[in-house]
Amino acid sequence: MAVALSDKLEPIYQEVLQRNSGETEFHQAVHEVLESLGPVIVKYPEVADRKIIQLLCEPERQIVFRVPWQDDQGRTQINRAFRVEFNSALGPYKGGMRFHPSVYLGIIKFLGFEQILKNALTGMPIGGGKGGSDFDPKGRSDAEMMRFCQSLMTELYRYLGEHTDVPAGDIGVGQREIGYLFGQYKRITNRYESGVLTGKGLDWGGSRARTEATGFGTVFFTEEMLKVRGDSLEGKTCVVSGSGNVAIYAMQKATSLGAKVVACSDSNGIIHDKQGIDVDLVKRIKEIDRARISVYADEKPSASYQANGNIWEIPCHVALPCATQNELNGRDAKALVGNGCIAVAEGANMPSTPEAVRLFLEAGVAFGPGKAANAGGVATSALEMQQNASRDSWSFEHTEQRLHQIMVGIHQTCHDTAEEFGCPGNYVTGANIAGFLKVSRAMLAMGVV
């Protein structure tokens, strides 16, 4: 059950519900932020007087368009695509593009809204935005992917620019898709603006460590949460949902810091390897063979596979949900707490339901919300923009060091803000307030209200 809002914030939420009917994920994201802002409007009444919160909940621009394309049989297919340019108070809109059948305007708005505060927490000069399409990339050939991406960019290009809006990848959009999108942008504009998209290949402006950044950053944040409790990842048992980029590199970094990752998953089921997940094998299965995670159990006698299993029922000290939104519910949270889990960090965007978050906080579990814990990906995208602007290229080690510094800084900001507003150890409150205050100060300074 959601926490009741204050008398000043409840009308704002009701207005969001009325203006954005049926967009449940967006409603959830807004409510979670509003739950934290009660002390802010008491300390800073100008925020309420000048309707900063209402402005933050309303995108600056919403773009919805069709994407017609031809499949390999010559048949015309039509998808719908979105780009929500939410807030540019801190810099150009920045956020990924998601290709998945579940995509609709409400999911893009939820992701874009979260992106505003997430990007603010990085300390980088980037605003918040998000985009995507209900196109399903599964089973599509390279030629079909190229035709779809080219058609999408033929409409989207007019809204982009390295000083305006800079998309990146997300679910269903990797380096291949970014290449097709960038190629079409360059073809139409006759400009090599390498800073207009991030997540590019290393040969043409990409950043070393970008692929690893979100997963690495999530683990760096987890380590910082444990450190302030006098603990570390050394010797801890971890479970990681998902088996995409975020999950793979979260497993890799956690293992390098002394943890044992014993389970991961995909949309079909979970693998459990008590001896510790072989990350290199998972990489091969998912990145090279593009196979289902069940293949892991065929090659590793120590592992078991469970179709449609629940990864959160496996005992662990640290849980890293790295798959998709609302994948971890209240029942899962009870199982994790009951099995001795001490830390949860969100590698995905809003993977824990409100009930799960409440249960973690009540149980004293160190809980890192996605807008803080998974901000390493967009932070490294901003580093890629820096390199593109200066026509420079950094080493993997230098980029990872910058990423680590940024994640330590995000943790410190969230930790200190939570204490300042009377909620020590509550990283949800700390992240929401710190991100909100930074954006609202910029909006007030620029006279946008």
UniProtKB/TrEMBL annotation:
Belongs to the Glu/Leu/Phe/Val dehydrogenases family. It comes from Ectothiorhodosinus mongolicus. The keyword Nucleotide-binding applies. NAD(+) binds at T214, N245. One of its GO terms (molecular function) is nucleotide binding. The keyword Oxidoreductase applies. Substrate binds at K94, Q115, K118, G169, S381. Catalyzes the reversible oxidative deamination of glutamate to alpha-ketoglutarate and ammonia. GO terms for biological process: glutamate biosynthetic process. It holds the Pfam family ELFV_dehydrog_N. The active site is at K130. Keywords: NAD, Nucleotide-binding, Oxidoreductase. Homohexamer. This is Glutamate dehydrogenase. The record marks D170 as: Important for catalysis. GO terms for cellular component: cytosol.
